[in-house]
Write a structure and sequence with these properties.
The structure is a homodimer. Chain A folds into three domains: 93 residues, Beta Barrel (OB fold (Dihydrolipoamide Acetyltransferase, E2P)), CATH 2.40.50; 260 residues, BirA Bifunctional Protein, domain 2 (2-Layer Sandwich); 122 residues, 2-Layer Sandwich (Gyrase A, domain 2). Chain A has 17 helices and 23 strands. In chain A, strand 1 and strand 2 form a beta hairpin.
Amino acid sequence: MYRSHTCGELRASHINKEVTLAGWVQKSRDKGFVIWVDVRDRYGVTQLIFDEDRTPKELLEKAKTLGREFVIQATGTVIERASKNSKMETGAVEVLVTQLEILNQAKLPPFTIEDETDGGEDIRMKYRYLDIRRNPVKESLIFRHKVAMEVRKYLSDQEFIEVETPYLIKSTPEGARDFVVPSRMNEGQFYALPQSPQTFKQLLMVGGMDKYFQIVKCFRDEDLRADRQPEFTQIDCEMAFVEQDDILNVFEGLTRHLLKEIKDVEVAMFPRMLYDDAMRIYGNDKPDIRFGMEFGELNKVAQHKEFKVFNDAELVVGIAVPGGASYTRKEIDKLIDWVRRPQVGALGMIYVKCNEDGSFKSSVDKFYDQEDLAKWAEITGAKAGDLICVLSGETNKVRAQLSALRMELAERLGLRDPKVFAPLWILDFPLLELDEETGHYHAMHHPFTSPKSGQLELLETAPGEVKANAYDLVLNGNEIGGGSIRIHDKEMQATMLKHLGFTEEDAKAQFGFLMDAFEYGAPPHGGLAFGLDRLVAILGGQETIRDFIAFPKNNSGRDVMIDAPAAIDATQLKELSIKLDMDA
Amino acid sequence: MYRSHTCGELRASHINKEVTLAGWVQKSRDKGFVIWVDVRDRYGVTQLIFDEDRTPKELLEKAKTLGREFVIQATGTVIERASKNSKMETGAVEVLVTQLEILNQAKLPPFTIEDETDGGEDIRMKYRYLDIRRNPVKESLIFRHKVAMEVRKYLSDQEFIEVETPYLIKSTPEGARDFVVPSRMNEGQFYALPQSPQTFKQLLMVGGMDKYFQIVKCFRDEDLRADRQPEFTQIDCEMAFVEQDDILNVFEGLTRHLLKEIKDVEVAMFPRMLYDDAMRIYGNDKPDIRFGMEFGELNKVAQHKEFKVFNDAELVVGIAVPGGASYTRKEIDKLIDWVRRPQVGALGMIYVKCNEDGSFKSSVDKFYDQEDLAKWAEITGAKAGDLICVLSGETNKVRAQLSALRMELAERLGLRDPKVFAPLWILDFPLLELDEETGHYHAMHHPFTSPKSGQLELLETAPGEVKANAYDLVLNGNEIGGGSIRIHDKEMQATMLKHLGFTEEDAKAQFGFLMDAFEYGAPPHGGLAFGLDRLVAILGGQETIRDFIAFPKNNSGRDVMIDAPAAIDATQLKELSIKLDMDA
């Protein structure tokens, strides 16, 4: 061992002890007659001291050669520090060095290894191993480990078994694109990397392994939006002989346990809300309920006058912005510009100032009197001093627009406190989703989700209205997980695949093994999956997941540190029976 | 929840309780007036009873329709069993059923779901989900989970951090073949799946994360020998600021912990043996030391007579087979045939019977007298009643042959007791290995392994003699893990890659990021990896790993259950900018 103690360990109680430390030079201050060197490892920083009186000249000279990030080993005596540093855990002491080894030299790093660095995103990604030396990244990775360990302990204690499912599986065109892997031994054939272990966990249920979990990498070859990774980690779970409530209870218990153990936050029963209600009240299936600003639907009280914009709208809906009555005309104009941005897409915004004296001032005073506006205030819950923002149009669109505005305003008003945790179950998601481009319905969750009991017949007549036994767990406005009760009957699964546009042949080719399995005694089952990257980031009070991933890829799916992907040898291609087919 | 209790839970203390069970019909016995149905879940089996006296007729009729592996839910009263079954944990009671639901029917399974099944390997692989219902497979998967949890707990308690390294990395032609993944977003480029997280864990050390571990899938596109899988799981570890002994101590501690926690076996300090000694004493770098039969080298006492075979041999070496003097001529001839098989490859075998009266009878009495043979007995440790088997020839070959014979005899003699655990460290492996085909040396462990101090200069003059800071942990004749102290100096790494035949350009293209990292303050570091599949199998007292993997692939790398790999769509190929290049 190169050290007797870590750099985070020494205290006043160690004074007069001989110790050996090893680590990186954080910084050194050379006053000529005395040199202080801060040495850092994973556990902390300790100050070394060399001085003319007590240090041999040769050693003092050696200390002068130390540069930032040199790797050193120093032996010496722990002494009391003349001027203690109460901000450092080791700040009561320093080490008077008697032996110094330079274990490795270091070039000047391309950015400072400090909590606040001068390095931009790109350079930090390229030198990720240096970025990991910085406390915020290092602590994020350690935090992730702790969360994963707690998940495993909790689920193991509840008799869940972690089972490793295969990574080399079969491609299914359904859903997102697969990454594929050419098979050398099976010419012209490909494996696919799993988008999730979905079918395998269902087969484990058929196999009687009635409580399964796995923390597992999954892969999706998507065009990457910001903060998406081609490989990501799921906490994947499945249970047999359970109903929806049993699953919600177990994973609510897990989440509550994590909040308690990791954040020391106690949360009571998680509220449960129907999907339809979430859309009506928040315009969003993953509402942030750390704050109010609930939607008030105004059709009844806004479509009786001559204001054509509202009269033609499918939905007129508003929110009350706390304290917004004090916004200047300019500020409100900026807000209107904000909702008109293409990313939001509203055509305009009507507003009502709720004055402190109880009167109202709106941008549609021409059409609506004080009595009308008082009703709007009542429905949106606006109080004196608030601003009511009203959007109108096609229901789905206007809900999305107002939801975006609600989140933006909450952000500006500081209502999204990262120290507050507001979990929420959303239940009864639609089974199917209309693809506006193709006019086809596809599975909102996945093709194995069961419709709510008694709704199967609706599939023929009103497919968009069928609700599923599907649920999401939302935390602070982020979906951290979702799942469903699965179909466990071969006939129903066949019907579902038919409705999703699979020919009988395709269904058999892709999911034949699952439907076969359903014939040999499949139990009722269901499950869910949490996104670990996101969960960890939210528990860590962050919005972006990248710092919680040791070696993330950039938005083009590249690892810029190792420079992957890359070209491969012609012989490799030949062995795999493939060749490149590049556009000219 | 479909059940109030599991099928393994009910005891005499539950008598008169109303319970609901759910599970699979293991078997039913219909005596006409009474029907017993054994219902099984993951936790055990419970007997249900329906009879004419107490069961409504309709329910009795329904019970008669139950087939093997039907999924049922039964509610009833726990009653005392007339004839108790002490072999069943629930054998004191049965459930008098009052309600029966058939949750799912089942076709007759293609093999019996019993501890001893009539299903062959192929059919069990195809219906793996049914095989998992069988106790031996189910228990193996649960056992694997327990081992993995204990590993995680132990290493976490020692401040190791589990860090997830990426699966989509870069291909390196060194070592085994990579599986590659075409990148859609980076035309003509490929990711590779990791053969191990080797370079990433070294970068984590450069990043200051000084105790890393990960239980992680790795991938090798090899022609599969029996009991190898294209994807396999490693317990991967790395530490910084340590020497070889520190690493051995930590992972010896882990292994000892597993043996104690999982098998309730206490093992003292693991013996440590040099590679050269292991080869000399056991002819093998992973000797099974549960039994003796150590090699005795006989050159000095066998090359002084007229026996040309021995005189021409580089090595003459024998082992003593306990009790082998009683073998008949026919048995010994069979043994000679066995060593002559092409898989072993010896040209012949000389034997000496050590008679109970102290005399010797050998197949070379023509050349050697009793005094000679007494010396052989002394050197091989043969006692009266033993048989000495002697092989001769080229050192490496004859050691391998005698090692094979030693293992075979131990197997036949019942000396390889799966309940005994004999771990052993092998140290100081050669750094390089000669490829007999190409005449080139390649890294025996991998190109990042450091040579033993002071041996670097030997690289030029006698590359085969350079020893490495490399070690294996052997358990009962199986290598369960290995590792090394790594190079952490850029110059030494460059020298090593040069000696392994890398051009400077290739070295930079493939490992440039690692050598760059070594310039920014790389600490001394090293680590090791255990093969989890093998470790679990050995701890479970088994020789084959397949039952400890939920969904294994066959020897052609196929998953016969889901039928992967498979052809993919033309559009998928097009998007990936590749096309098939099949032989005509």
